[in-house]
Amino acid sequence: MTTALFTVEQITQFQQNGFLVVEGLFSEEEVTLLGQIGRADLAIQQSTYSRADGEGGAVKLNIENEVHDDIYGAIASSERVVNRMEELLDDEVYHYHHKMIQKEAKVGGAWAWHQDYGYWYNNGCLLPDMASCMIAVDRATVENGCLQVLKGSHLMGRIEHGPVGDQTGADPERVEAALERFKLVYCTLEPGSVIFFHSNLLHRSDQNKSELPRWGFICCYNTRHNDPYKESRHPRYTPLVKRNDADVLKVGRVQWEQMQSHPSI
């Protein structure tokens, strides 16, 4: 473990609230490159799919289990993210997967209330000792469908989940009760800011009916001690090789230059 990156108060806040916002974790150039590359990336376009939200809209996303030598992998394995995640989860973590949520202006769909562990549980993870880091690629506002969380709801434990459109959502009866007892927080973020959130935290987002897109890059991690007992769509434990923070810019610049020179990349 490295020198502490969070204060005791911040770790306590994560433990009590189920989430923690860190402003400006990525620079303007880094997050601009992430957005430019993501939007021009044919591989992302080819692997992107939609999930109906049950409200007449659909969410576009792509998911990747492997860490490659690209800007996505450099971020997902960066010391600034991984070391912080290990502090919050108090163990070595490994890359579970990462994904780009693509909420386009006017048409981006909603996410139903859910817990990530609501379905990661079915992948053979015995414990909810897992979390995600969402990086704001675009400014996230109430109007363009920012993340919403119920503060402290991770302490409820896992809730039963079922179909909501093409998505998997938490039991509506439990959600209604939780809405009465836990504070609803709209997680507005500037580009480059991040939110770390626990796998049992109830969260959702509204449709994007604004004129501005809201893309978000989410890196998901599992703890070493929570290695799944069976194979599933996401990987079991393998050590994650951490990358120097400077690699995000270094790799991103090279990747962007290659994409401009060879648009088919």
TrEMBL record:
<dbReference type="Pfam" id="PF05721">
    <property type="entry name" value="PhyH"/>
</dbReference>
<protein>
    <submittedName>
        <fullName>Phytanoyl-CoA dioxygenase (PhyH)</fullName>
    </submittedName>
</protein>
<dbReference type="GO" id="GO:0016706">
    <property type="term" value="F:2-oxoglutarate-dependent dioxygenase activity"/>
</dbReference>
<keyword id="KW-0223">Dioxygenase</keyword>
<dbReference type="InterPro" id="IPR008775">
    <property type="entry name" value="Phytyl_CoA_dOase-like"/>
</dbReference>
<dbReference type="GO" id="GO:0005506">
    <property type="term" value="F:iron ion binding"/>
</dbReference>
<keyword id="KW-0560">Oxidoreductase</keyword>
